[in-house]
UniProtKB/TrEMBL annotation, chains A, B:
Residues 8-277 form the Pyruvate carboxyltransferase domain. GO terms for molecular function: hydroxymethylglutaryl-CoA lyase activity; metal ion binding. It comes from Mycolicibacterium flavescens. The keyword Transmembrane does not apply. PANTHER family: HYDROXYMETHYLGLUTARYL-COA LYASE (PTHR42738). This is Hydroxymethylglutaryl-CoA lyase. CDD domains: DRE_TIM_HMGL. GO terms for biological process: ketone body biosynthetic process; L-leucine catabolic process.
Length: 304, 304
């Protein structure tokens, strides 16, 4: 049996990845959800994205939302990040007060072109500029490798593409890295193989992983990642966040389901389970449809 | 990384565990579901249970259903089993033509009393008699340890109780064994620990595992079991089969979700994935409500 870490840092991505493909909800509703998630004890949140408002209308209020984050930095110590897809997005995020930038690069050309109109190599070539913009302003950068296992257009992603993106980021002093199963197709064995293969390349740079539960294997993949040494995982309350390539399917792995599994494995987390279930219920009410979370239906373990 | 097996035998339990807490459906509907599941290529099915018709009305037609199994033995080579909870149930199953008996023993007293009106030790004490009944008729017996991790009444199950049930079965020449997460609370680390702990005790006797996805960790637990050497897993098409202690929660792990994960891990299975998704759709139509299967919504992996 692998050695499990003592603690896993969960980053809640409800407000960005979770809401991204939902019909836009008002800023007041986002602030209600933010408050509920902050109450879970989570220490990192992906707050929004600075991308094209016409392409992602649900996150068009990024600057307005960003103006509300300082109170949670002060009161809860939460670190907020925002996703960007270009140098201009990085500048906008920093101007709005974000000090932690996620730059997402699709390892597969098909998804990269559909998402940002660039090949993967072209998107990778922007890494140095984005890191420079952030570091010049005292901000940090996480490079996230999207479609790290499969692309909805190109099929399985060649492993070398993942290595190319990670290597470029490492060479330019990236602060954090992550690998993302953007369309929810990977499974634990492939996760183990990828994490073990890239670990020597990235050295001491923190590596996170991002899974969707689209085909039911999200938690199994998360546990495989943790067993292979990953100590940072993304999740959303309720499992918010669908997949544009699989309408009606599950979204991100649910924060509360992940907390249940990790806690039951003796791994420490920052997130309180009952508070996460409460936040999932808030999310479900605000988006107005059932969310796929298991704990939201089943509740915590029944103990006699 | 653990060594994964080359092949995992999936037993479809849709007709028994899947339908057990559903409103009863007509025999004709069960036969339609049986035909759809047989078309998946699965080689073992839990067909029904010979238990009190008043306690489990959904399976009151066990003898009538059993009369239809021979054609699938002949045409598809499927091995059918039936669950029993007493020596009398074993006799009824054998009289109905079943040659494979599952005797379920709850390792926890609370669940055992609620389920069969006996303590776990009293239920364990019936193992020799049930094995004798079966073997005298040329039938085989699998002893299934229910509530192997947690009981809805007693909390965590003492590991020694699981060992006691397994040991008694081994001493009396049981043919197969299984450990069951009856209420869907276990997680991969505990699964690994239990499988590793009981493996020396059971030697060469085939060991299966049975998981519910009630708290989202069913597939993660199944993968942990397989990684620890288990090569027999129960599943139901669509994830049929709720939990009486968590109304509205998910049921058994879904056959098609399990097949997707195992196939993607390079592990051979008897079950064809598109046929399993078709059978899940049949199950959903017959029970008349949404089933929790992921693949039923997301479909197979999208390959460009």
């Amino acid at each position: 049996m692998s050695t499990l870490p003592e603690h896993v840092r969960i980053r809640d991505v409800s407000l960005r990845d979770g809401l991204q493909i939902e019909d836009p909800i008002p800023l007041s509703a986002k602030l209600e959800l933010l408050a509920a998630i902050a109450a879970t004890g989570v220490q990192e949140m992906e707050a929004t994205a600075f991308v094209s408002p016409s392409k992602v209308p649900a996150l068009a209020d990024a600057p307005e939302l960003a103006a509300h984050l300082q109170e949670y930095r002060d009161s809860h110590g939460i670190e907020f990040s925002a996703l960007v897809a270009s140098p201009n997005g990085a500048k906008r995020a920093i101007a709005a007060g974000l000090s932690s930038i996620e730059y997402v690069v699709s390892a597969a050309d098909g998804h990269s072109r559909a998402n940002v109109g660039r090949t993967s190599a072209e998107a990778t070539a922007l890494i140095p500029e984005i890191i420079a913009i952030a570091h010049d302003s005292g901000a940090t950068v996480e490079v996230i490798v999207a479609t790290a296992w499969d692309c909805p257009f190109d099929g399985p992603t060649p492993h070398q593409r993942v290595v190319d993106v990670l290597s470029t980021a490492v060479q330019h002093d990236v602060d954090r890295l992550a690998i993302a199963d953007t369309i929810g197709t990977t499974t634990p064995r492939r996760v183990t193989e990828t994490v073990e293969a890239v670990s020597p390349l990235i050295g001491d740079i923190p590596l996170g992983a991002h899974f969707h539960n689209t085909r039911g294997a999200g938690l199994a993949s998360a546990y495989a990642a943790v067993s292979a040494g990953v100590t940072r995982l993304d999740a959303s309350v309720g499992g918010l966040g669908g997949c544009p390539f699989a309408p009606g399917a599950s979204g991100n792995i649910a924060t509360e389901d992940l907390v249940y599994l990790l806690r039951d494995s003796g791994i420490g987390v920052d997130v309180d389970l009952p508070a996460a279930i409460d936040a999932a219920a808030v999310a479900q009410r605000l988006v107005g449809h059932d969310l796929p979370s298991s704990l939201l239906r089943a509740g915590d373990r029944i103990l006699g």
